[in-house]
Amino acid sequence: MVQKIAKTTVFLAGLFTISILLFIIFYVLGRGIPVVSLGFLTKNPTEMGRAGGILPTIIGTVALMLLATLIATPLGVGTAIYLTEYTRESRLTRLIRFGAESLAGVPSIIFGLFGFVFFVIYLKMGWSILSGGLTLAIMILPTIVRTSEEAMLTVPRAYREVSFALGATRWQMVKTVVLPTALPGIATGIILGMGRCVGETAAVILTAGSSLRLPTSPLSPVRTMAVHFYILAKEGISEKMAWGTGAVLVISILIINVIVNWLVNRLISRRIPR
Amino acid sequence: MPRSAQLGLSFITTLLLLGCCRVEGSEGGLTLAGSTSVQPFAEMLAEEYMRKHPGSPPINVQGGGSSAGIQAAETGTADIGMSSRNLKDKELALGLKPIAIAKDAIAIIVNPSNPVCELSLEQVRRIFTGEIINWREVGGKDAPIVLITREEGSGTRGAFEEMVMKGSPISLRALRQDSNGAVRVIVASDPNAIGYISLGIVNEQVKALRLDGVEASVGSVKRGEYSLVRPFLFVIKGEPKGLAKDFIEFVLSPEAQELLAKEGLVGID
Amino acid sequence: MFKEKLIGYVLSIIAFSAIASLALITFFIFREGFPVMVKVGPFDFLVGRVWAPSRGEFGILPMVLGSIWVTAGALLIGVPLGLAVAIFTSEFAHPTIAQALRPAIQLLAGIPSVIYGFIGLIILVPWIRNYLGGPGLSILAGAIILGIMILPNIISISEDAIRAVPREYREGALSLGATHWQTIWHVVLPAARSGIIASVILGMGRAIGETMAVIMVVGNSLGIPKSVLDSATTLTSNIGLEMGYATGLHRQALFATGIVLFAFIMLLNSLANFLTRAKR
User: Fold this and answer.
1) Domains present along chain B, CATH in parentheses
2) Can you tell me the ipTM of this complex?
3) What is the pLDDT of residues C37-63, one digit of tens each?
């Protein structure tokens, strides 16, 4: 009897929670999609965002995300390759791994603090795409290193040994055996990083600024969609425009997720030995 | 190559990269940063200026609060800092020049549903120190007062502390918000809240209290009757040059001042 | 052969540069924050009850308490509910429903925190104010929103852990006469324990580090909170509010707060490593 109660409670709790989660998705999309139109996506904002579109923020979001990813991915994957394939396990590598793991968990606000003091003020880059991109790159670097490393560590030793036995050099082995096998895990880490860039707000305001103008150079300040949503919503400037921005954000994330899942599936199915 | 040499080389490379990254100035545009009270007006003026001078380099406006703006002017992160309070002595000593561009008042706001319409300055002070904690003590409903204040770096808060608190500390129980707009949103939705914002952005969602019998309006500010008046300042390090100089001249021109007056500020003359 | 050496060399430069930059930031944070802790005294800093930078007082106890209350609340809400959903999708639900839910959960994990924060501000805060009392902007609001935000993480990782439990365990229990629920409670969950605990620790880390959503709903007052309906400030939201204008000692105090957060995360990570390693 107790069990029936337990089972039903868990069942209902699960159902309840799922409905809350689904409610959130539908709420954002429901309030936001009616606002989104071609004009919304291509026009500049006017009256501090009360009217017009959100084009500069879309460009800002893409610019920051691309810059951060383009810097952090080669750095992160390269580091992971070096640590797993080119060095032996030692206290140093364990220390580095622990450091990367800790930094991956450090709140993003701290990276924002660092980026503000170091890039914006000390290196005199000002509030700019450059400052923001570099800060975000450092923020997602530990995550990419860690997930890439984990992915590569799960590649069975046998694969590597067979490759060597066939006469491959270390790099050939990495390029043709380890990387492709570890690719889904590596891709996941990169996507996680990209998602973090899109959603980050406090660190971005402090390093990339919150200007609504179209950026003209890497040194231009820029506003991202997440920042735009925050400012519009919190200051009561325009709830309508805020939700429109929110809907665009959610749909972009949905698209990124779909693409990634498709990519990962394709890569996995290609790699599974027949 | 031995490990230590690799390490050394990468370290040096990194330093070199960072060293030559020290960028001087931005791409020719103008950056204003600081007071969230001044920000919407600066934005409006920037838009107007760029409309009249198509092809002008972009003018970017940024929030952060008066103290942040003053600091940004000092470090050069911004070309012009925006402040809604007077500069402190130690700030003036750093070579910062304040240029008054308008006068604004601080309005004490409550929710429109609050029956209280008028308070004395002394009452406001005692409310914000936490001495008065219930609305019925000042003629309102029997409900606890919810204090909304700004963060410490805010010029509005600085001006409020100077003119109203006069040295008494604001209660630690006050809820901190980081901009005028946010304070207005909270007061508009909480029937028991009280806060202070720039008069220029008071709208129908909140009610501005009469202070010591004086209405909070542009008229009473102009007539010198309303006491909580503070300057909107552009803060510059040294002498304004180039685009900064042009923009400041525009802001001080009669047509720009008229625009500001239309928006609820008082021009300087 | 030369190409090999070159590639190896390039990789080492990449690795050292990356590690150098990460070390730089760690070093920077500690260098900025440590002097303050020494100057104010670590004890006075950590347990000081008053945070008033303009008067030179830097006690972070109100924020430490705020973070603890909000995170604990978030876990109390997020873990049971998340587990319930994980059990629901792996044990009760029809496979197609579970399959359909997965992208939704993945999407929710990616939604920016400011959106959660704003929904909290316009739906949850007024509700708390009208039905439970207080200003609405409260620890409770923060805990609920954070709890909801960590749900996707807890759900997906716990679900993986539950699914990873070998079929034989379940079948063994059932063949011995156990009911479905008994199997879940006494066999599956204990077997998935390390994965579930990992998800909880991850959720805790995320909850502690969240800034924007918290700033929007928690009220940010500096008093010592006495009930969940009180407003409070967390370590992260304080940095977020004051970062823009803090200079000198004040800014260093914010970095010192960052050190506290850093230290806490390192502790959590060590704990997580210890637990997962023990299981292996």
Assistant:
1) 3-103+231-262 (3.40.190.10), 105-222 (3.40.190.10)
2) 0.88
3) 888 888 888 888 899 888 888 999 999
